[in-house]
Each structure stands twice: as C-alpha cells, then as structure tokens.
Design a protein that fits this description.
The structure holds 2 protein chains of 2 kinds. By secondary structure, chain A is mainly α. Chain A has 7 helices and 3 strands. Chain B is 46% helix and 17% strand. Classes of the chains: A mainly alpha, B alpha+beta.
C-alpha cells in the first residue's frame, strides 16, 4: 500500500505549442515560394532568403522591409534566423531544393509543390506580399546592403 | 454524340488561295506527318472553330500558327504574305449537322462566328440558313440567340450546371472547362490529367468537369448543398443589416431590446420581444415607465397650476434637494466617463491580441494544409521523418538539444482556437459592458440636464412675482408630454421593424428544412456503379498500356468529394497521392491515355454527357517508346461507336509508325500529309 510518504509522483512535460514559422515544412514552403516569386532563375543566396523570411514575420517588419528596399536606409539590419538553414537542409534532403555553389535553387519537384500550393489557395497573404515585391530585390542590392552592416 | 465530319481551312494570298480540306470518319482517324507539316495547325484550327482555343493558353486569333496569320510556305523556304484566312468545321450530332465558320485573319472580327444549319462542307451544293453569333464577349455563353457557346452547348445536348466561383458568385460552368476531358493538346495537355482547363476561379474545376462528363447525381446534391449554404449566408447578412438598423433606431432613445439577436433564429415571436430603458440608473421595462409617465401627466393635468406664492416654500425645499442630487450625479458622471475611457483602451488591447492570434491561426491552418499536401506529394517531413535517414524527427526547427515535445498541428490549432475563443469572450463582455456604460452615461447626461433646467426654473420662480403661475410646474408638464410622445412613436417604429424579423425568420426556417433533407452522402447508387466501372477499366488499361511505376495496385478513383473527386489517386496508408508525383514521365502519359479512354468507355455504358469524341495530339511524348502505344491505337481503332483522333509524327520514323498500327492496318482512316496540310489550289 502507498502511504502519503511514499506515494509515487510522476511529472510529465506537456506538449508545447510551436509557432507556425518553426514547423519545418511550413518554413520550407515559405522558402520555396520566395524562390519562385522573388528570385530570378528561381535561385537565391541565403542572405536574400533571410531578408524575405524576416519581412514576412510581422506587419512591422514588412513596413521596415519596404523602407530598407525602397529608401535605401543606411545601416540596414535585419535579423538572421538560424532555423532557415535547417529548413533549407531539409529541403535539399527532400530534393525540393538543390545547392548551386553558394546559392540554393528550386528543383522540378519543388516547382511542382509550389504549383500545388498556389492551386490550392494556400498562404495567400504571403504570396500576395511576394508578388508585390517581385524581382526588385536583386543579389547586388543584397550585397550592397550587407556592406552597411560592418559600419 | 459529337462527330467532326470535315474541316476546311482557307488562306488567301496574293498568289492565290491555299486550301486544307480533310474528311473524318467514325472510329479512329490518324493524322500523320512530319513535325513541320502543319498537323498542329490543323488541330489548333479545330479548337479555334469550336471557340475553345483557351486550351492552347489564350484567346482569339493570336493563338493560331503564323501560317494562318502572317506568312505561309508555298514551297521549300518560299513564304507568301497572308491577306485573309478562315476555318470551317462541320459537326454532326444524332439529329442534325451544323457548320461553323470563324475568321482568323480578315475584316471580320475573330469574335464573330457564323453557324450554318447544314452540311456546308460535305454537301456544298445546297443552300443553308446561317446566323452570326458572338464568342468571348459578355453573353457569349448565355445569350440565347447570339451567344456561340450557348448554341454550341445546345447542339451538344448539354445543360451546363451552375457552380460556385471563388468570389462566392453562383454562375454557369464554362463550356471550355469540359473539353480537356477528351481533347488532349500536345504542349500542356500531357503534363497532368486535365491540365489545360482554364480555371476561372472555380474550386476543384477538374472534378466538376469529370462529374459533368459522367453525369453524376452528386453534382445536383452538391449544388443543393451549396445553395443552402449561400442562402443561409444571404439571410445572415440581411438579418445583420436589419439588426444594425434596429440598433440605430433604439439608440435614439437609449433603448435595449430582448428577444432578437444579431444572428438568424428559427423560432421568434413578437410576444417574446421587449424593450427596456435605463432610467435613473436602473434597467426597467419601457412599457412600465411609459405607464408611470402617463399617470403622472394625467395627475398634473387634472391639478390647477399653483401660483409661485403657494409653492415657494416647497420650491425652496426642491431646490435644495435638486442641488444635492446634481452634485451626486456629477460625481457619478465623472466616475462613469473615467470607466469608459479605461474600458475602451482595454478593448483596444484585446483587439490587437485578437488580430495576432487570428493571424497565427491562419498561418497554422496553412501549416495543416501544407502537411496534407506534403503527404500527398510523398514528402518525408510531412510524416515527421528525416528525408535523408528516414528516422523519426521532432516536428520543429528548434535545435535538437532543446528537447521539447511539440504539439501536433491539430493540437496547436485547437490551442490557438482556445486562445481566440478566450479573447473573444473577454471582448464580448467588455464590449457589452461598454455599450451599457455608454447608454448609462447618455441617460445620466440627460438627467443632469433635466435637473439643471429644473434648478434654473426653480430659482426663477423664487425671484418672480408671487402672483403668477409657477413656471417650474408648467415646464415639468411639457417635458413629460414630449417624452411620452417620443417614446410612443419609437415603440411603433420598433414594432414595424420586428415584423420584418418575423418574415426573415420564416425564410430561415424554410432553408433549415431544406438542409435537413439533404442526404449525408452526396453520391447516389448509380454514381457508385459508374465509379466502379471507371476504376476497373482504368486499371485494366494501365496494365494493357504497360504502366510500370510503383503503386499500381493502390490506384483508385477518389471518392473524396473534397480531394481530386473522380480522378485517379494512389492510396498509401490512408493518404492519397496524386499520380503525378509517383509516376515516371512516360507512365504519366500512359495514365492520361488510360484515364481518357476509360472515361470514354464508361460513358458509353451509361447515358452521360460525354460527346463520344477523343482527340490525342502527339500522344507519344516523354520518350514513351513503343511499349503500350500500339495497344492504345488498337483500343481506339476497335471502337467504332465513337470518333477518335491521333495526331502524331510517329517520331518521323516509318518503322515506328508500322509498329504503332500493327494489327489494325486498314481499320482506321489515315490522313498522311506529305508536304503541308494547307497547300495552294492548283
């Protein structure tokens, strides 16, 4: 018999909620969409993906994004998200992405998944934003901006 | 039934008329020629004459080859300017024939299509009535007299159903959406089943097209369901508008209503409806207050109005009590104003929180969809497995050593929904409190004014001539009279508005009744039979055509009304994959052969909307090789009840062609184009 002194107490950790941006496949889909809608040749440097992923985080970061892109504010800093590289690695594992020197590129399989996403009316707000930006953030612009970081 | 009897393409140039005339039979028609021979020109002109050039990706003459619009090749490398061109197409159904004439280049607009009621091409010596119709313009699909697609729909014996578009409207399905089920075009048509359907913002348009071709009962049931849904929505909106108007009316008198809410209900009656007024800080039935006022008014009227002298002693007492009441009311008023301010900022905070939570909920719903889609596309992450080593992994991007137990997506959504619900509940409480407080404040303000006026007239009485009648008493009587007439009128207006709610409630009741009558499963028994036949044929044909990708045994026709309904899917562990992901390129082509033919053959067994026509433009794609191609040709040639077309270069190889038609020599109509499909008239 258990008495109050030797009653076994078991602690179980509760499942914790995960923000959408930390779900691997969701983050990966965002990256695929960025490559499709905002990058010529469906290819991009990691830094540009970081910029877009950061911009999509909140309304404030979107506003700040437009300031950085259109008004060429000096000392433009956006946050770098370590989970992106994990998502990209998964993407390469799934053969949705491929590495081309220092850039990543959409594969045929990736393009198909993007088409399914758009066909199924998913992630509408994100896609609207990306279409609005289009191809105006070029790699050279990214390089230019990142130079400002050192100062 | 639809049979294409003959096509004629006419191209005018300064060096003479170029002609391309071809007659077709029932059964298999093979159009064979080199890649540059103009086979595609012929095929595209057919689509153009039917007004379905959107299958090629665009509208009007710009979709046609340059040979029909700009320069045509007379002999090797010699091009001549085109001055005018048009196409004729003679069609036949079970009863009659029509001939379509449409301009490609020339003075007439490509949107103008002429219909001749007869065999203009095969029996050109007769005279036929004709009519000019329009296409691709508003009314092109709906105008009974002049809409080309309306008349073509009639000729095909179709009655296109109404479907719900993404913008919520309820309109007819486009004719162009049906054709990709039996006309497969070479550039876009072989990338997936029904891939050339123009979308026009229709949900699951591929399934709709198949449902229509197979004439499934599910269509009607689904439509009925959608109709109920949209009717319900309409009533809800109307109800809400009326409710807002009612609130506006009530606010004029700071009234509150019970018995009617801001969403539709089936059982409301006028007896359950009551009006309340906040009076001196208390919520009371308006009817009771009105009764009190009327009594007081009666009493005042019956009394003789006193002179100032008679009541000054009393007035002094009133003045004192009025002044202390005024002070108290001012304190209450300030306290209430402060409360309202605090409550408003609280509500603002909650609203910001709510927006954040709802945004996260929207994202999480996307997460859920993405994972479902990923499951269908055979992506390991969707099954929480590593794509490289296939080991189970945590469903989060946090570092591995973070050691967390993430909620499943379903749990996560529930969690966020609970948060949303909580905030909404808070908001609702705060908002309704705010409304009450504001109403109280407004009533308090009126009371304040009343007392101020009363104090003013009391003071006046005290300094006035003692012999004249008391102004304070007269003032009181007049105010009472105004209030009574104002609220009596308001009650009448409210009663009229309540009548309208009763009418709406009846309508709502009728819709709910219709909703209850809908069958829970939308497919009928006959629908199941059709699906069974379709699935059996489809699988048989896959084997016949030497389909070899994995998962052949798990292929089924989806009966999931939401997901690729009527289309083939691979089922694995309860998850449905699109065949597109699992088949090799050449097997996808075989899938399209098998499905199109199975659809045609199933339709023959049942009386459906399928026109009994099948056109394959360059079906030997993607290095499909020899395997299965000959079998496919045999299958088509053996079916004389329908008309089929295979348009192909046969890899520009004699042996490939001979292999393809092995066993059916002489059993089909061969159109062998030696130089150009359209050549100069000698």
């Amino acid at each position: 018999m258990y008495s109050i002194d030797n009653l076994p107490i078991i602690f179980r950790s509760k499942n914790i909620p995960i923000p959408s941006g930390y779900r691997p496949l969701y983050k990966l889909s965002i990256i695929l969409l960025i490559l499709k809608f905002c990058c010529r040749g469906k290819k991009s440097s990691l830094l540009r993906i970081q910029l877009f992923s950061w911009a999509l985080k909140s309304v404030e970061s979107k506003d700040r994004f437009w300031e950085i892109v259109t008004e060429e504010i000096n000392g433009s800093i956006w946050t770098l998200d370590p989970t992106i590289i994990r998502a990209i690695n998964f993407g390469i594992g799934e053969r949705l992405l491929e590495r081309v020197s220092t850039s990543v590129k959409l594969t045929q399989k990736g393009i198909k998944l993007v088409k399914d996403i758009t066909d199924n009316d998913m992630m509408i707000k994100e896609i609207d934003f990306m279409k609005q930006v289009g191809f105006q953030v070029t790699e050279s612009k990214i390089t230019e901006m990142s130079k400002n970081w050192n100062t | 039934m639809l049979k294409i009897n003959k096509i004629k393409i006419e191209v005018n140039t300064i060096e003479g008329i170029f002609l391309g005339e071809y007659t077709f039979d029932m059964g298999l028609n093979v159009i064979k020629g080199l890649n540059t021979s103009g086979k595609s020109t012929l095929f595209q002109a057919m689509l153009y004459a039917l007004g379905i050039e959107e299958l090629l990706g665009g509208k009007n003459a710009k979709m046609m080859q340059s040979a029909l619009r700009e320069k045509i090749e007379k002999e090797e490398e010699k091009f001549i300017e085109v001055t005018a061109s048009k196409v004729f197409l003679e069609l036949q159904n079970l009863e009659k024939s029509i001939t379509i004439e449409r301009t490609i280049r020339g003075e007439k607009s490509p949107k103008l299509v002429r219909i001749y009621y007869g065999n203009l091409l095969t029996k050109p010596d007769m005279l036929y009535e004709s009519i000019d119709t329009w296409i691709h313009d508003p009314g092109g699909a709906s105008n009974k007299n002049r809409g080309f697609h309306y008349l073509l729909e009639e000729f095909l014996g179709w009655k296109l159903p109404k479907v719900v578009y993404n913008n919520g409207s309820f309109r007819k399905l486009y004719l162009q959406s049906i054709f990709p089920g039996f006309i497969i075009e070479q550039k876009g048509g072989w990338s997936d089943l029904l891939s050339t359907i123009p979308h026009y913002g229709i949900k699951n348009v591929e399934s709709k097209s198949i449902e229509f071709l197979l004439k499934l009962d599910v269509f009607e049931n689904e439509q009925a369901k959608l109709k109920v849904k949209s009717d319900k929505l309409a009533i809800q909106n109307e109800w809400k508008t009326k409710y807002n108007n009612l609130q506006y009316l009530l606010n004029r008198g700071d009234l509150e209503i019970s018995g009617i809410n801001n969403f539709p209900e089936t059982l409301i009656n006028s007896e359950g409806v009551a009006l309340y007024l906040f009076f001196n800080g208390r919520r009371r039935l308006l009817n009771e207050i009105l009764y009190d006022w009327k009594e007081e008014f009666k009493e005042l009227s019956s009394r003789k109005i006193a002179t100032n002298l008679m009541i000054n002693q009393q007035n002094l007492k009133y003045l004192n009590s009025n002044q202390s009441e005024l002070e108290e009311l001012i304190i209450r008023w300030e306290f209430l104003s402060q409360n309202i301010k605090i409550r408003k900022s609280k509500i603002e905070q909650y609203e910001i929180q709510l927006k954040d939570v709802q945004e996260e909920l929207r994202k999480n719903k996307d997460v859920e969809k993405i994972y479902k889609l990923g499951g269908e596309a055979n992506i390991s992450l969707a099954k929480k497995k590593c794509p490289t080593c296939n080991q189970p992994i945590e469903d989060s991007l946090f570092p591995i050593d973070a050691d967390l137990n993430p909620m499943s997506i379903g749990e996560n959504i529930k969690y966020i929904k609970a948060q949303e619900k909580m905030i909404l509940a808070f908001l609702q409480v705060e908002r309704s409190e705010l409304i009450k407080e504001e109403r109280n404040a407004s009533q308090l303000y009126k009371n304040l004014n009343d007392i101020r006026i009363s104090i003013r007239s009391l003071k006046k009485s005290l300094i006035e001539d003692d012999r004249i009648p008391s102004e304070a008493q007269i003032e009181k009587k007049i105010r009472l009279e105004t209030k009574i007439s104002f609220y009596t009128k308001l009650v009448e207006e409210t009663n009229d508005a309540v009548e309208e709610f009763l009418v709406l409630s009846d309508k709502y009741n009728e819709i709910i009744g219709r909703e209850r009558k809908l069958p829970s499963n939308l497919m009928s028994r006959l629908d199941y039979d059709k699906f069974k036949t379709l699935e059996k044929r489809f699988k048989l044909l896959l084997t016949t055509f030497e389909y070899s990708s994995k998962g052949r045994d798990n292929i089924a026709i989806s009966k999931d009304i939401e997901k690729r309904f009527g289309l083939p899917v691979v089922e694995d562990e309860g998850i449905k994959y699109s065949l597109r992901y699992d088949s090799s390129g050449s097997d996808l082509i075989r899938t399209i052969w098998a499905y199109s033919i199975a659809l045609l053959e199933t339709s023959l067994l049942y009386n459906t909307n399928h026109p009994g026509l099948l056109i394959f433009d360059e079906p030997a794609q993607q290095g499909v090789g020899h395997s299965g191609f000959n079998e496919m040709m045999i299958r088509l040639a053996s079916n004389k009840k329908v008309q089929s077309f295979v348009i192909s270069s046969f890899n520009e190889s004699k042996s490939y062609y001979e292999n393809s038609v092995k066993g059916i020599e002489g059993k089909f109509k061969l159109i062998d184009i030696s130089f150009k499909s359209i050549s100069i008239k000698s």
